[in-house]
Amino acid sequence: MDEDLIEYAPNIPDNVLELIFSYLKLQDLRNCALVCKSWNRFLCDENNEVWRAQCLQKVPAEAFKNDLLSVVPTYKAKLRAFYHAWNPFDCSRHVYIKPNGFTLHRNPVAQSTDGSRGKIGFKHGRHAWEVRWEGPLGTVAVVGIATKDAAIQCHGYYALLGADDQSWGWNLVDNLLLHNGDAHGIYPLLNNAPKYKVGERIRVVLDCDDNTLSFEKNYEFLGVAFTDLPDKLFYPTVAAVYGNTEISMVYLGPPLDG
Asked: Where is the B30.2/SPRY domain (predicted)?
């Protein structure tokens, strides 16, 4: 960056910064936030015109046609969620990602369990994302996390997510926690815990600092599901069996406690 620009950086008016930053790529904007307090303050406003332009350029227009992104209120948060959404190159061959970029569709293929992972994995920090299941659950509907080594498709109707030592999941059909091919108890720990109803919002909370995985349903914390997670790179993951079912995932960022 030009030394003269750095010298005068703190005194550049916001309207001029907006014009300059509108020509930059995301990586450049990250670097600009480190130049001085003035630039950092400007870029910390996640709803300014710079982030609005970036969001509208990169997030598909279809994503704004319903309330899917209402859980991430700022333009920068919506952009961040898009970069964390389902990975079209890391899903079963029976799954495709819809034009909105956030929703997977499982094709009606018999005798197959099909899954998808998110684009970005996590190894440090605390992360939360929302999963919304649209359509019947069938016999298997599992939400959780997996490493890159976990299978993403298998023959038959099978609790794929949680079937090996590389994945951890909660089967919404029978409220069982699954890992390494075993059931690890009923979840949540309630007498006659209510089953998931299609359309309810599930939030997954991964704490890589405490090595735990937890869930919320309709903004109610359900308790810690898994502890002592290994030091691995984890990806948001789901597994489904029902034809034409659709599952949306929106990354929220660090979870809000309380």
From this structure: 64-256
